[in-house]
Design a protein that fits this description.
mainly beta; Maltoporin, Chain A; 22-stranded antiparallel β-barrel; 5-stranded mixed β-sheet; 5 helices
């Protein structure tokens, strides 16, 4: 922790405290949304997206659904696999929770691994960043996104309620449907049932070329079909101030990866969740909440229906929170979090598909254990809200072996990889944060925060070592990596008056040992097997493929950026008009150089007009994304592009809604700067789409 961090905290406190002369007699408005009980994360969200608003954003996968929210974008590894990016941070710096517990999968390890969360099951999304994100540890240094479902009902129900929807997109050869229903006996026993299905063909695009080669026939992203279905059920028993709940959910998807024309991922995740929530009176403790999530995750990677690699994750995540409040107004959370996961990676030999051959796998089997203690407290003093948080963790990562390159090979000979003995490493990351919010005049609030966050390297950053065909890279970890350390500063304001809302934020992050995947100077020559339909007497073809070696490397880096939005609500006699302008930009560089970090979101402008009446809504959107900078190891920069989108709906007979969702209506060819360069030009953004659907409310 640097002296700069301490000085900034003290100076910020002094400056904001000194502003008291403007508002001695004013009361701070509630920071949380009106109904605090619906905040599943337990701490103040930066953004809360309600179900009706998310209906407008909802797309085939969760990351693309969130892309475009202020400060949020997507890695866009083709149309089927992506992860959200917040303020230029991605991978293991963005934590995903589902109903308060960690989403366990392999998506943080590679861009081609989808996030196993069904967008159709979501009723609310909480995006948390800043000082309160500290309670989720270093893996939430960029932010935490909590997906809230109703699989465990939080309220007593005495009637049948829910929603069902069907939709189809002829332009993109896509059809989907989902239902979400709930009921109860009115005496405390409640239940829910949900399900969804998605079937999509090859993603259609304008004409494009693969890295300057021949145009893709048919103007489609190759190997981009997908099929997804999910089901979930749960119940709760509510008696007085106590809630007990249990839920079971299953998510399955099979999708293609554009980089490899015959490569398919077959993924499934099953989760069992327990919830205990009770309002109590135990001295300082006013509420106790315990969540446990057991996850069984597995995905197979196949080439022309031949099984090549299996990724598994068997994990248990437990989170215990104690909500405290004193007579003086000091309130917050004390908590404990436990994680135990076993992560087998099995690769199969060419000779015998079901024979384990660990040396072929890109990641060794690992065992991860961690324990975290955290605290977050806030107190209002003379119209100022002070927040302080801290967390300490102990992390153990054990790998059964480590891969090292023995020979690089050449254009006619494959290189060789050998195994070294396993490694057992441990880390003790610690983090702290401080924030102040000042209400100046009941219309204008300013806030500032400073945090110091350490993040332990992930198992794949430590121990990856092998060919990853779906990304077209040889990825190499470093078992000697140390904790990533970052200082983060945030200043913002919000202004609300007469329907006018203005929000702005400035942020800066200073990293030591920022761990990222950077293209090296070496080439690894791998033997690539081509699996085709089998014909008697034919032999499998193979060739030598030259792969760039990308290394997980710690570099001193800095990020800075701005977020700004402005909207105005104008009420007319029969309708309401709300125009919104937003702008965001993030710059990430290796310190002491002019080199940009790879896969950064370019600056963006968005213009949205929401026009709504009693039973109808029209929402046109224009987005302009500037050209992207060339990042470390990248040879090209992306061109700017613009998107025209449209959402509209009409409600009739009180409980039926017909809706239309149009994307990229101008049908512009666009490539995302946040996509790995080796994949980017195989997978443009989707071309024109027009999805029409029908919803039934119960």
């Amino acid at each position: 922790m640097s002296a700069k961090f301490v000085n900034v905290v003290l100076v910020g406190l002094l400056l904001i405290t000194s502003s008291a002369s403007f508002s001695e007699d004013l009361q701070l408005e509630a920071i949380l949304v009106e109904d605090q009980d619906i905040i599943e994360s337990g701490v103040k969200p930066f953004d809360v997206i309600k179900e009706l608003d998310f209906d407008i954003l909802r797309k085939g996968n969760i990351s693309d659904s969130l892309d475009g929210i202020l400060g949020v974008s997507s890695t866009r590894f083709g149309p089927n696999a992506s992860r959200p990016i917040i303020r230029g941070q991605d991978g293991d710096r963005i934590r995903f929770n589902e109903n308060g517990t960690l989403v366990q999968d392999w998506s943080v390890s590679s861009f081609d691994h989808a996030v196993p969360v069904d967008p159709n099951s979501i009723q609310q999304i909480e995006i948390i960043r800043g000082s309160s994100a500290i309670v989720f540890g270093g893996n939430a240094v960029g932010g935490m996104i909590n997906f809230v479902t109703n699989r465990i009902p939080k309220n007593n129900l005495d009637a049948f309620e829910g929603i069902a929807s069907l939709s189809s997109d002829a332009e993109q050869d896509e059809s989907s449907g989902f239902f979400n229903i709930a009921s109860g006996d009115g005496q405390g026993l409640n239940w829910t049932l949900s399900g969804s299905i998605l079937d999509k063909g090859l993603t259609k695009t304008p004409t494009f070329t693969d890295n300057g080669e021949e145009p893709v026939t048919g103007n489609k992203v190759r190997n981009s079909k997908a099929e997804t279905h999910s089901v979930g059920a749960g119940f709760s028993f509510i008696s007085g101030n106590r809630l007990l709940g249990l839920s079971l959910d299953n998510f399955q998807t099979e999708y293609g990866v554009p980089k490899e024309v015959n490569h398919v991922l077959d993924m499934q995740k099953t989760g069992l969740s327990f919830l205990y929530d009770e309002t109590v009176s135990l001295g300082l403790i006013q509420r106790v909440k315990a969540r446990i999530k057991i996850t069984d995750y597995e995905h197979d990677e196949l080439d022309a229906n031949v099984l090549e690699t299996t990724y598994k994750r068997d994990s248990t995540n437990a989170r215990f929170e104690f909500f405290t409040e004193t007579e003086s107004g000091l309130a917050g959370i004390l908590g404990l979090e436990l994680l135990n996961s076993r992560n087998p990676v099995i690769a199969y030999s060419e000779e015998e598909e079901h024979e384990e051959h660990a040396s072929l796998g890109p990641i060794p089997t690992t065992r991860n254990k961690s324990i975290g203690l955290f605290a977050y407290q806030s107190k209002e003093i003379d119209g100022r809200l002070f927040e302080i948080g801290a967390r300490v963790d102990h992390v153990d990562v054990k790998a059964d072996h480590v891969h090292e390159i023995e020979e690089f090979g050449n254009s006619t000979t494959a290189g060789e990889v050998h195994e070294e003995a396993g490694r057992d490493v441990s880390f003790n990351p610690k983090s702290m944060s401080f924030g102040v919010t000042q209400d100046l005049n009941n219309m204008l609030k300013i806030h500032g925060s400073a945090s110091y966050v350490e993040r332990a390297p992930s198992s794949f950053e430590l121990f990856t070592g092998g060919v990853h065909h779906t990304t077209g890279l040889y990825e190499q970890g470093d078992p000697n990596l140390k904790n990533e350390k970052g200082e983060h500063y945030d200043f913002g304001l919000s202004f609300i008056q007469d329907g006018l809302t203005i929000r702005g934020n400035l942020f800066y992050s200073d990293y030591k040992n920022y761990i990222t995947l950077i293209k090296g100077n070496d080439i690894f020559y791998a033997e690539e097997h081509h699996h085709e339909e089998e014909h008697e007497g034919e032999e499998e073809e193979s060739e030598i493929e030259a792969l760039d070696i990308y290394n997980f490397t710690g570099v001193d880096s800095e990020f800075k950026g701005i977020e700004f939005s402005m909207s105005k609500k104008i009420a007319f006699q029969n309708f309401t008009f709300i125009p919104t302008f937003s702008y965001d930009q993030v710059i990430g560089k290796r310190k002491g150089t002019s080199d940009h970090l790879p896969r950064l979101t370019p600056k963006r402008i968005s213009l949205v007009a929401s026009i709504s009446g009693k039973n109808w809504l029209i929402r046109p959107e224009f987005r302009y994304i500037y050209s992207g900078n060339r990042g470390l190891g990248e040879s090209t920069k992306t061109d700017s592009y613009k998107l025209f989108n449209l959402y509209s709906e009409y409600q009739f007979q009180d409980d039926w809604i017909v809706f239309l969702r149009g994307y990229n209506l101008n049908n512009e060819l666009a490539f995302s700067a946040t996509t790995v360069e080796e994949v980017r030009y195989f997978a443009p953004l989707p071309g024109r789409s027009a999805l029409i659907g029908l919803k039934k409310l119960f």
